[in-house]
Structures are given as structure tokens and as C-alpha cells.
Amino acid sequence: MKNSILKFGLTVFLSILLIGCSENESDEVMTESLKIEEAELSAKIDNSAEVISDTFLQIYEFEESPFKSSVHPFIPECATITIEITDSSKAILVDFGSEGCEVRGRLIKGKVNMSYEVDTDTKALVINYILEDFFIDDIQFEGSKTITRQRINENGNPQYIMDLDFKVTFANGTEASRIGTKTREWVEGVLNGNWGDNVFLITGAWETNFVNGNTHSTTITTPVRREASCKFLVSGEVELVRTNFSGTLNYGEGECDNLAVFVNADGEEKEIRL
Description:
By secondary structure, this protein is of the alpha+beta class. It contains one helix and 14 strands. Strand 6 (139-150) and strand 7 form a beta hairpin. The longest helix has 62 residues, at 2-63.
């Protein structure tokens, strides 16, 4: 009888132990999956946000160019541009419509409201813009941005310092918000009238807050390279830090593709799509 009781007790103990191990392994897999998913979403925000910056900078530089033509070379005909000018300011409304316009392989919908003080002699100009019902492909962006355009930085290049404050909603309903600062240095194709050969190096730091309470602190550790001829970020590395979790996101070595690599704190690599 004692042996039967002991065997039964041992069986129950081992069963509980195995179940516990199985549950722990399942929890670890789910946690790791969530980390990768959030890293991928963060990368998608990074890449899409640069499309907004591209669009904004194209419009501003074209409007202030001494070689301005009657047709905007960077914005498709399906977009409507409305400009209001006073003695000291300029306001620009760009409406891509509810159906959207394709801009270098990305579908842009909604409106961008831009405004700035007109001062051709200033070395640093502050530009504001607000997004209305604005989408890049199926990702919605809401909020505003303040940009300080420096005519020449310490490297002799134009530079844009951007204060970030916007909310993002993905097609599946996932929401996130972002605040921080980003700097774009214009290093190639400067003011030559051909946007396609322009290259920017991006640095900065920001926080991305997901609705589940997780916060990703992001710092660019190797400048991220943005080439206007490619719809994706092509190189550079950022560090992602979250409570009990950290890793790096590498955008590659210069290839124009939709791939990046996430490396967690244990050195494990995971390819993600932008």
C-alpha cells in the first residue's frame, strides 16, 4: 500500500514538474516572440517616419529654391498643393487625398500642414508641420513635428534637427507613440535639384511607447543612412532598451532591401522585415 502511495505521489510530482517546465518554456517563447514583434514594429515606424521627412524636406527645399519651376518635380500630380504667403510667413498645405498617391513605391494618404517664417538670411529656420488623416501605406501617423533647418553645420552640410511627437496606428490596431529628437545631415546631392541622388545620415534618440505599457528607448549608435533612391533605410545601427530586455537593430551594409537584423542581449540574431 505504501509503495502504491509513493508511486502515485511521485507520478503526480513529476507531472507537475513537467507541466511547470512546459509552461515556463511556453512563456519564454511568447516573451521572445513579443520582443521580436515590438522590435519589428519599431523598425517599421523608423522607416515610414523617414518617408514623412523626405516628403517634408522635398517640399520645403523646392519652395525656397531659386531655381523653382512651375511643376513640382517631387510630388505627384494627384496631390494638391495650396500656398499662403504673407510678408513674413509661408503656409503650405499638401493634400494627397483619401485614396492616396504613390511616391517612390509608398502609398501616401492625407494632409500635411507646413508653416515657417520667411527669412532668407537666417542661419537656422524653424519649420512646423501637422499631420491630418495621414497614412504611409497602411500605417497611420498623427501628431506634429518641429524642425530646425541649419543652413550649414560643423561639417559644412545642411542639417535638420527634428523634435518628434506623434502617434502611430498599425493596420491590426496596434498603437504606439513616439517622442524624442532626430538629426538629419544632408551629405550627398545637396541642392543640385535632383532629389534621387540625395543621401542623409541620421542620428538621435527617442522613446516608443506601446499601448501594452512597454517602452522602447532607442539610440542610434551608428548613423543610419537614408538614400532617396531607396524606399528603405540601407545601413546603420540602433540600440533598443526595454525593461529586462535589450538588443540592437542593424539596417545592413548599404543594400537597398526591406531587411534588418535584430540581435538580442544573448547575441541571438533574427531577421525582420521593414
